[in-house]
Amino acid sequence: MGGLDLEVRLATRADAGELFTLTRACWLQEEWANPGVVVPALQESFDDAVRGLSEWTTFVALAGGRIVGSTRGKVAGGGTVWDVGRVMAAPDLQGRGLGRYLLELIEDAAPPQVTSYELWTGAKSVDNLRMYKKAGYRLRGPAPGPVGAVILTKRRR
């Protein structure tokens, strides 16, 4: 994929610092693309990031020993929805297919009872919206909570 030799594995507590830094780098771009929108990922503390590792199924992608991408998912919606979150590729590696690869990876990690996927992104995050729509997600409208966020969903096949 894009010339990257990747190692992909479940995240561990030891990855928290690097994941926290990657999250900041990726979601700062979201904040710039969506002026005036409060980006929840940028409001989190390091302790929140550590706690997230126990609440979500989180994967990391490493290249040359560096975490260059991550994604996470958890069951929601009464057990039938897979909440997809934090699909992120390091800024210097974006546009090489890593985000799409991670999206497919986290979809495949959903337990058998899941019938659909759901994710949120910024309403003005053009690149994200394009990638998600290409992957079969459909815009459902404004997300509850942060103004300027939208929900996209996809039926599981």
Properties at a glance:
globular, Aminopeptidase, 33% helix, 5 helices, 157 residues
Write up this protein:
There is one protein chain. The chain has helices at 16-33, 40-43, 46-55, 98-108, 126-134; strands spanning 7-10, 57-63, 66-76, 81-89, 116-122, 138-142, 149-155. The model has no long low-confidence stretch (mean pLDDT 93). Strands 1-2-3-4-5-7-6 form a 7-stranded mixed β-sheet, sandwiched between helices. The protein has one domain (7-155): 3-Layer(aba) Sandwich (Aminopeptidase), CATH 3.40.630.30. Helices cover 33% and strands 32% of the residues. The two termini are 24 Å apart. The protein has 157 residues and is α+β, with helices and mostly antiparallel strands. A hairpin with a 6-residue loop joins β6 and β7.
The top-level CATH class is Alpha Beta
Assign the CATH architecture: 3-Layer(aba) Sandwich
Low-pLDDT runs: none
How much of the sequence lies in strands comes to 25-35%
Average of the residue pLDDT scores: 93
Q: CATH superfamily, called what?
A: Gcn5-related N-acetyltransferase (GNAT)
Helical run tally: 5
Helix content class = 25-40%
> Major sheet: size, sense and barrel closure?
7 strands, mixed
- Sheet with most strands: strand arrangement: 1-2-3-4-5-7-6
CATH topology: Aminopeptidase
H/E element string?
EHHHEEEHEHEE
Shape: globular
Query: Into how many domains do the coordinates divide?
Result: 1
